[in-house]
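Input:
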Amino acid sequence: MINILLCIMAGIVVGYLAKKTTVVKYTGSLLNVTIMLLLFFLGLSVGSNEQVVSNFTTIGLDAFLLAVGATLGSLFCAKWVYKKFF
Amino acid sequence: MKQSIVYLLLFVVGVILALSGIMPDLLLNRDITTWVLYALLFLVGIQIGAGKNMFAAVKRFGWRMLMIPLATTVGTFAGVSLLSLIIPGRSLIDCLSVGAGFAYYSLSSILITEFKGAELGTVALLANIMREFSVLILAPWMVKYFGKLAPISAGGATTMDTTLPVITRYSGSDYVVIALFHGMIIDFSVPLWVSFFVSL
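Output:
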């Protein structure tokens, strides 16, 4: 957790200081490349993990249920805020 | 949308290569992943630091704007907590970690994989992709039954990029600034919430 926060905070400081330079323009593309690299690695570790491969149906179903729960929960709260404040 | 498909494709190619067994073990080295992950977080930080000031938006539109990311967070955590009761073998913390992705599937799945393993990481990847797609497909229905803020809350961290076009279309252009602000706040909170839950 500490490492994560330090990495983000270091980035925020650098980003703030380099705000007006052109270097910042490339962070978007660099970010894209790191995400692609990491998702590829995630794919590799998923494919080589027998526990994940043999339970793929369960994983898919759990993911679906959690997506429904997260989305419906925020929909109900959004409805309340919309009626109350907007 | 195009970007999401490229991401998903890379993940699938990784799975297929690993299943076929032609990948050298070197690439499965976890140290490399950890360092790339740190680079990713550093870059996320740069984007936040160089981005437009979030507080300027609050000043312009008042504090009620903060109610929307708050609703998203509370609603999401309440929803996944309830479901943790009926999903066998998933703890409350695991469900909260997945929910804390707020549709930011790349970052959340990568972080969760690093700390909780590829199994829960895959759940996070799929669940958060489904959340993003639900907005892309169901936005008009969400507006009809849950009001104009509904697709913004449901879209989580994606309301400043991938789901912004559908939100503009179905909630109206008045809600663009709200969607951008909401996306920024939630986007920023994803690595914080996820790293908090996985450390519990």
